[in-house]
């Protein structure tokens, strides 16, 4: 596809379970970002990938959150032992270059996560 | 501590009139500002941006103004159209020092354009 895709679009899980969220960036985009939007809040930066490496993990809220990127393309965000406060929309974005120039970030539709 | 603030959660405007969406920021390290538009169940879509070295950028019906001394920016939509009804996010960018430009978003303003 031409845009950023994410799966699943919706995920309902029980507290304490692990979840995996997937992001397929735009082909050729080397930079990939994860954000989340909690109810009534703005988008919160989580992690940035340049290729397969993650030079900026400063936004991950706890060690229950981790992410990886393989082949410079698909990325997976994993949340272990989910808590109710993890409920949010998780958004992925990609851009052609992360540094040193500003590049527009293109967003996917997001994954709505609900932890019961 | 909210570094990017959109103090109006909602705004209603008549079709054909001007829509003005406001945004304030606190971090003087921000050097690039963007507006994103978001429809329900979709990801944010880039709309317009401005570098901190400029005070105005115009693209069709959309103009962004930046007042660095006041740490304030605004998005003007003229004339407003019903299809402009969406949530508008203000975002500010700074080099994070770890190889990335981090975007910090406001909470958004829901614009409703009334036909």
Which structural class matches the secondary elements of chain B?
A: mainly beta
Strand content of chain B: over 45%
Helical element count of chain B?
0
What's the alpha carbon Rg of chain B, rounded to whole Å? Answer: 14 Å
- Mean pLDDT across all residues of chain B, rounded? 92
Low-confidence stretches of chain B: none
Greatest interface and its residue counts?
A-B, 30 and 30 residues
Summarize the biggest pleated sheet of chain B: 6 strands, mixed
What would you report as the Rg of chain A, rounded to the nearest angstrom?
13 Å
Characterise this structure.
The complex is a heterodimer of chains A (116) and B (115). In chain A, 0% of the residues lie in helices and 49% in strands. Chain A has 116 residues and is mainly beta. In chain A, strands 2, 4, 5, 6, 9, 10 and 11 form a 7-stranded mixed β-sheet that branches. Chain A starts with a strand and ends with a strand. In chain B, 0% of the residues lie in helices and 57% in strands. Chain B is built from no helices and 11 strands. Chain B has strands at 4-5, 10-14, 19-25, 32-38, 45-51, 56-59, 62-67, 72-77, 86-95, 101-105, 109-114. In chain B, the strands form 2 sheets. In chain B, strands 2, 4, 5, 9, 10 and 11 form a 6-stranded mixed β-sheet that branches. Chain A binds chain B through residues 4, 31, 33, 35, 40-45, 48, 50, 55-56, 58-59, 91, 93, 98-100, 102-110, and chain B through 2, 4, 6, 32, 34, 36, 41-46, 49, 51, 89, 91, 93, 95-96, 98-108.
């Amino acid at each position: 596809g031409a845009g950023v895709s994410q799966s699943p679009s919706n995920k309902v899980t029980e507290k304490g379970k692990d979840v995996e969220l997937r992001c397929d960036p735009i082909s050729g985009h080397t930079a990939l970002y994860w954000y989340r939007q909690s109810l009534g809040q703005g988008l919160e930066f989580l992690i940035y990938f340049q290729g397969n490496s993650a030079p900026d993990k400063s936004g991950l809220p706890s060690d229950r959150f981790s992410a990886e990127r393989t082949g410079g393309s698909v990325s997976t965000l994993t949340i272990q032992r989910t808590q109710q406060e993890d409920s949010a929309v998780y958004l992925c974005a990609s851009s052609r270059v992360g540094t040193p120039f500003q590049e527009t970030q293109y967003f996917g539709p997001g994954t709505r996560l609900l932890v019961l | 501590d909210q570094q990017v603030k959109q103090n109006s959660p909602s705004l209603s405007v008549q079709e054909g009139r001007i829509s003005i969406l406001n945004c304030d920021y606190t971090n003087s390290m921000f050097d690039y500002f963007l507006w994103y538009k978001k429809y329900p169940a979709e990801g944010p879509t880039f709309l317009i941006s401005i570098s901190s070295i400029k005070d105005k950028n115009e693209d069709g019906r959309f103009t962004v103004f930046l007042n660095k001394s006041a740490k304030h920016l605004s998005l003007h939509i003229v004339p407003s159209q019903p299809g402009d009804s969406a949530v508008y996010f203000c975002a500010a960018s700074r080099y994070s020092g770890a190889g990335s430009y981090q975007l910090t978003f406001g909470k958004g303003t829901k614009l409703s354009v009334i036909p």
